[in-house]
Amino acid sequence: MTGSMDLPAKGGFDFDLCRRNNMLEKNGLKLPGFLKTGTTIVGLVFQDGVVLGADTRATEGPIVADKNCEKIHFMAPNIYCCGAGTAADTEAVTDMVSSQLQLHRYATGRESRVITALTLLKSHLFRYQGHVSAALVLGGVDCTGPHLHTVYPHGSTDTLPFATMGSGSLAAMSVFESRFKEGLTREEGIELVSDAIRAGIFNDLGSGSNVDVCVITKGKTEYLRNHQLPNPRTYASSKGFSFTKGQTEVLSTKIIPLKQKVEVAEGGDAMEE
Amino acid sequence: MAIADTPSAARRCSSSTGWRPGAIWPYLDGTGPSQGRVLCSRAGSPSSSGVVRPSPAHILGSDRCGFASGGVAGAAEAQNDIDVLNPPPEVEKLNHKKELLVQPSSSMDVNCQRSLTMYPCVTGTSVIAFKYKDGVIMACDTGASYGSTLRYKSVERIKAVGKHSLIGASGEFSDFQEILRYLDELTLSDHMWDDGNSLGPKEIHSYLTRVMYNRRNKFDPLWNSLVLGGVKKGPKGDEKYLGMVNMIGTHFEENYVATGFGNHLAIPILRAEWHEDITFEEAVKLVEKCLLVLLYRDRSSINKFQIAKITTEGPTIHPPYSLKAYWGFSHFENPAQGAVGSW
């Protein structure tokens, strides 16, 4: 092992810049805040497939940054994924795996399977050792049946009949643990999911606004965006705004005509192709 | 400082030598009994002369330090009249044979042998309670953990207080036993008045709030979250009362309360399903629902619960029993069936 050997790139997270980042932070650099989705996301398996649910509040510290964001991400026509944690991380990771699944579908000519998505997600997250802060509820129906999985930021996964993630997960889990049973119908499933999300919305500060639901069955997916709106604006004028003439008193009027001057340049250069 | 956080202390406060700030600190101008001598007698052990401990005088900015074993104490005695506000420690000791039930301690008292509560040792988990038609129902499990070991499995964390109240506690169990002693003293001295009136839940809640808050102010909290429920005849008939106090003194009154994990797991269920004048049977079903969720999702809970209720007839604490947990989901049987070899 003499001389300098050019080792192939090992892959995995490159921690080289961490020392520099620490030094910068010590010297007073304020890192930009990140948009977290303090969240309630849930999923359950019913008799024909999977129902996923999510709230729609994205928080940046104590402020609500987006009061109607979409937390149920598309992975494949038969697979959807809810994301909790850092919004950028969940978006990026689900987008990336969604593209990989699409390429895989072209290569194999078959419908994507849920465990394919699961394995892609967990290997990616494990490589990044928890620095990609994405906690996901992945659900879908493929040729082997309905599946529901949770994926944690460090890369571990669970396969469950019902699952909740996010800051409101305990409130939602209390609803599931007390009312879930196997073989629910579609209506019961949607109702239970909505109740669980509402428990998260009203009992957890990081979750709020509306309820999104996604129902996946064999051959059909229904994305019910804003399925419930339990937080309407309290005082909304039904008439809307009306600004009639004469409501504002006119004190003075001054009209300045602008001279129109158009110059046409003769024989200029043609635009570059 | 003898703050009135026990009934006996309260009575002692009004005695002749009651307020004695000088017991620990000198006057702000630096005079007063020698710190070394005072601290010796309080700590109960002889001080080692070589060690210069940071005495309160340092903190207060006086330039007297260390121990003057001859010093000022001797001078005070030589004065022949006893300084009532700052009596020398020997005279103090003669007057007070009984130590205060709660040693007054503060963060400034760095040489006090008693250390301040830093962490709980033996802890109980959640307690849930809510009002129902005839009174208040309270429930908890009967386990007490020692760190991550389930050390005690038959612990009663709900007790009756007088004729009108129930107290349930989560957190450090020894502090709960101490609180029960204080409540015993309180109810006993109230009974001795023999005036036909007895302490109701509101009064006990108020008393506990003061105790908890005062202890917290001395940086020596009683590490508990207490639930206090009861029924007492009031001007508007039977008035149900349910309140909670926690270790920092936050207190409030509500129709349903829960401590610890119950806040996250039981309160959402209670918020959705509790209603006014719920019957006892429905209340038990609701309690069992909450307890089952806590059993599934709280690592320190055990499957042995006690339900207690308090009505105008008095408190009843039922014997412990277990709930049936369901583990028969088909997904639990073979989670990797879709992909053999996956994890």
Written overview of the protein:
- Chain B: InterPro entries: Ntn_hydrolases_N (IPR029055), Proteasome_alpha (IPR050115), Proteasome_beta4 (IPR016295), Proteasome_bsu_CS (IPR016050), Proteasome_sua/b (IPR001353), Proteasome_suB-type (IPR023333).
- Chain B: It holds the Pfam family Proteasome.
- Chain B: This is Proteasome subunit beta.
- Chain B: One of its GO terms (biological process) is proteolysis involved in protein catabolic process.
- The complex is a heterodimer of chains A (273) and B (343).
- By secondary structure, chain A is an alpha+beta fold.
- Chain A is 27% helix and 26% strand.
- Chain A has a single domain (36-228), classed as Aminohydrolase, N-terminal nucleophile (Ntn) domain (Glutamine Phosphoribosylpyrophosphate, subunit 1, domain 1, 4-Layer Sandwich).
- In chain A, the strands form 3 sheets. In chain A, strands 1, 6, 7, 8, 9 and 10 form a 6-stranded antiparallel sheet that branches. Chain A has a 5-stranded antiparallel sheet with strand order 11-2-3-12-13, with helices on one face. In chain A, strands 4-5 form a two-stranded antiparallel sheet.
- In chain A, helix 2 (87-108) packs across helix 3 and helix 4 runs antiparallel to helix 5.
- Chain A is extended, with a radius of gyration of 26 Å.
- The model of chain A has no long low-confidence stretch (mean pLDDT 87).
- Chain B is an alpha+beta fold and 343 residues long.
- Chain B has a domain at 122-317: Aminohydrolase, N-terminal nucleophile (Ntn) domain (Glutamine Phosphoribosylpyrophosphate, subunit 1, domain 1).
- Chain B is 31% helix and 20% strand.
- Chain B has helices at 7-13, 35-43, 56-60, 71-78, 89-95, 173-193, 201-217, 262-265, 267-273, 280-297, 330-333, and strands at residues 122-124, 127-131, 136-141, 144-146, 149-152, 158-161, 165-172, 224-234, 237-245, 251-253, 256-258, 305-311, 314-317.
- In chain B, strands 1, 4, 5, 6, 7, 8, 9 and 10 form an 8-stranded antiparallel sheet that branches.
